[in-house]
Amino acid sequence: SQQGEEDPQALSIQEGENATMNCSYKTSINNLQWYRQNSGRGLVHLILIRSNEREKHSGRLRVTLDTSKKSSSLLITASRAADTASYFCATRDNYGQNFVFGPGTRLSVLP
Amino acid sequence: DAGITQSPRHKVTETGTPVTLRCHQTENHRYMYWYRQDPGHGLRLIHYSYGVKDTDKGEVSDGYSVSRSKTEDFLLTLESATSSQTSVYFCAISPGDATVFFGPGTRLTVL
C-alpha cells in the first residue's frame, strides 16, 4: 500500500496565488521529500524535511511536517505558470532504502 | 537527470514478446530502482538493487525480472509482455542517503 497520499488530486489556481498541497503517510518516517514532475519528464527533487524538523523553506517553497498527524504540506507562494506540474511526496519505507510515492497532486497555474 | 540514462526512451511491442529496458548511471551510486508510473497510481516500485548482483522485489514485481552485473547498469526485463505492462518506466538511483535521482523515463506500449 502507498505510504504517501497527496491531497488534493488536482488543483487549479491563478498566477500569483498560493498553492497548498497536503500529504499523509501511514508509518514512522525518518524524512519526507517532495518532488515535481513536469509533463513527460522524470521527477525532480524539491525539498527534504527530516522527522525532527517542523518547517523548511526553499525559495518560494515552504514545507511543514506534523509527525503527530503523519502529514506534510507543501506551499508554493506567488505561483507562476511554470509551476504547472504534478507534485509528489515520498517517504522511505521501514526497511530502509525504498522510496514510496503517493499518486501526486496535479497543479495547474493559469496565466 | 544527472548521470542517468534510460534506453530505449520509447518502445512499442506486441503481447508475448520479451522486452529489456536499460538504465545506465555514471554516478557510481549503490542503489538503483525501477518504478512504473500509471495514472492514479503514482510511482510503484518494481524491483531495486542494493549492489552488484544484489536485487530484491518491490510492490509490483510480478512479470518482471532484473539484473545488475555492473554498478552502472540495471536491466529490467519483461519476459513476455502483456498489455497491463503498458506504462512509463522510471529508473532511479541513490547513494544511500535520503536523496534519489530519476532518469528521463521509458514509455512502453504493449499492443
List keywords for this structure.
A: 111 residues, mainly beta, five-stranded antiparallel sheet, 11 strands, B: 111 residues, seven-stranded mixed sheet
Which of globular, elongated, flat, extended, rod-shaped describes the shape of chain B? globular
* Low-confidence runs of at least 5 consecutive residues of chain B: none
The main sheet of chain A comes to: 6 strands, mixed
Distance between the termini of chain A: 37 Å
Give the rounded overall mean pLDDT of chain A: 89
Number of helical segments of chain A? Answer: 0
Query: What's the quaternary structure here?
Result: heterodimer
Shape of chain A: globular
Radius of gyration of chain A: 13 Å
Q: What series of H and E elements makes up the topology of chain B?
A: EEEEEEEEEEE
Contiguous low-pLDDT stretches of chain A (5 residues minimum) are none
DSSP helix fraction of chain B: under 10%
Distance between the termini of chain B: 29 Å
Rg of chain B: 13 Å
Secondary-structure element string of chain A: EEEEEEEEEEE
Main pleated-sheet profile of chain B: 7 strands, mixed
Structural class of chain B: mainly beta
Fraction in beta strands of chain B: over 45%
β-strand number of chain B: 11
Mean pLDDT over the residues of chain B: 93
